[in-house]
């Protein structure tokens, strides 16, 4: 019986270990999560059965110890499961700030359908806030434009991805992005592409260096 209880805890702990080993996030482990939930329900039932079979005003030490053990197992599994889910949501929120709407496909595929929906809703709320924060502004506030304040505004980039085509920027005008091209642009115009890995930041061009 004790060995089975230890195995219960191992499954929820394994979920957290998977998070630690992953470069970003592991694929959503729906099967193991269901197994942990089943363990929580099973241990909760065992605890209720013990309560129904004994007078709580006069229980033996063995029964009291059993109730405490089942309660600890339920609590440990629940806390591990919530930590797993909460950590994933935090990383998904961070991803929105890092790459904007251009989520790399390999990361998007690691999300559960409900997490994709959460990402969409989070983006909608953030977008609504940025558009209404300064109502009379000509351009909406973009809180995700710069993760850090750049030392200089001009940068040299190399295009790494296919199919970017032409983009219209606020400061650099129309920019043609073809794989292998190197060009000088305002950092604020392509910050989201740098963070998404679509273009590579080659070097910063200081104002006194010229272009």
From TrEMBL:
GO biological process, one term: DNA strand elongation involved in mitotic DNA replication
This protein's GO CC annotations: GINS complex
Keywords, sorted A to Z: DNA replication, Nucleus
Main location: nucleus
Pfam families: PSF1_C (PF24997), Sld5 (PF05916)
Family per record: Belongs to the GINS1/PSF1 family.
PANTHER family xref list: DNA REPLICATION COMPLEX GINS PROTEIN PSF1, PARTNER OF SLD5
Protein name: GINS subunit domain-containing protein
Native source species: Pyrodinium bahamense
């Amino acid at each position: 019986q004790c060995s089975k209880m230890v195995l219960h805890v191992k499954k929820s702990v394994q979920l957290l270990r998977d998070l630690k080993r992953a470069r970003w996030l592991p694929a959503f482990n729906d099967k193991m999560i269901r197994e942990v939930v089943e363990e929580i329900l099973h241990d909760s039932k065992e605890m209720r059965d013990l309560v129904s079979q004994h007078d709580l005003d006069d229980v033996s030490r063995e029964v009291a110890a059993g109730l405490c053990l089942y309660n600890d197992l339920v609590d440990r599994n629940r806390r591990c499961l919530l930590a797993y889910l909460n950590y994933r949501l935090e990383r998904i929120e961070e991803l929105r700030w890092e790459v904007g709407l251009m989520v790399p496909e390999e990361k998007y595929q690691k999300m559960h359908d409900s997490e994709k929906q959460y990402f969409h809703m989070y983006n909608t709320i953030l977008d609504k806030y940025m558009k209404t924060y300064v109502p009379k502004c000509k351009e909406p506030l973009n809180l995700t434009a710069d993760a850090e304040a750049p030392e200089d505004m001009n940068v040299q980039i190399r295009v790494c991805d296919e199919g970017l085509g032409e983009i219209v920027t606020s400061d650099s005008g129309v920019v043609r992005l073809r794989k292998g091209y190197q060009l000088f642009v305002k950092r604020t115009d392509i910050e989201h592409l740098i963070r998404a890995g679509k273009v590579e930041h080659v070097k910063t061009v200081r104002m006194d260096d010229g272009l």
